[in-house]
């Protein structure tokens, strides 16, 4: 089968469909290996009362960002693990679109620190400078968005 407008033709055959399907399944599996356990862990935090404790402990600080206390768990998982862990945490929490937007922008500036800071050091950057820059931009974005959204 060929698809296109005459100028740009793409030939689709069984092999291409199989490769696309297989690649999609592999990607889904890789994401699921992080997102599902994270969502289950957050559900356990909720059931045990640990999430309430975290929300209470971090609530005053999170208010500066216009976020509820339990959103701190999203930031921690994104800052220290990766964005997929943060996504799994978001799925398990009852957050509004506004709160998810603020968290997403913040995590865009600062995520996966345990992996990326050593890479920055190997590239010749100062870990302290990179950490303060990324974390500072993340928190500033949160304060700004929390105030205007």
Question: SSE layout and pairings?
Answer:
Layout: E1 2-4, E2 9-11, H1 14-48, H2 50-62, H3 71-80, H4 83-92, H5 97-109, H6 113-122, H7 127-148
Antiparallel strand pairs: 1-2
Helix pairs in contact: 1-4, 3-4, 3-5, 5-7
- How many discrete structural domains? 1
Fraction of residues in β-strands: under 5%
Query: Which spans have pLDDT < 50 for at least 5 consecutive residues?
Result: none
Helix segment tally: 7
Give the class from helix and strand content and strand pairing: mainly alpha
User: What about the largest sheet?
Assistant: 2 strands, antiparallel
Would you report the number of β strands? 2
Indicate the radius of gyration in whole angstroms.
20 Å
- Elements, N to C (H/E): EEHHHHHHH
Distance between the termini: 48 Å
Summed over residues and divided by their number, the pLDDT gives a mean of: 92
Describe the structure.
Helix 3 (about 70-80) runs antiparallel to helix 4 (about 85-90), helix 3 (about 70-80) packs parallel to helix 5 and helix 5 (about 95-110) packs antiparallel against helix 7. The chain has helices at about 15-50, 50-60, 70-80, 85-90, 95-110, 115-120, 125-149, and strands spanning about 1-5, 10. The chain is mainly alpha-helical and about 150 residues long. Helices cover about 75% and strands about 5% of the residues. It has seven helices and two strands; from the N terminus they run E-E-H-H-H-H-H-H-H. The radius of gyration is 20 Å and the shape is globular.
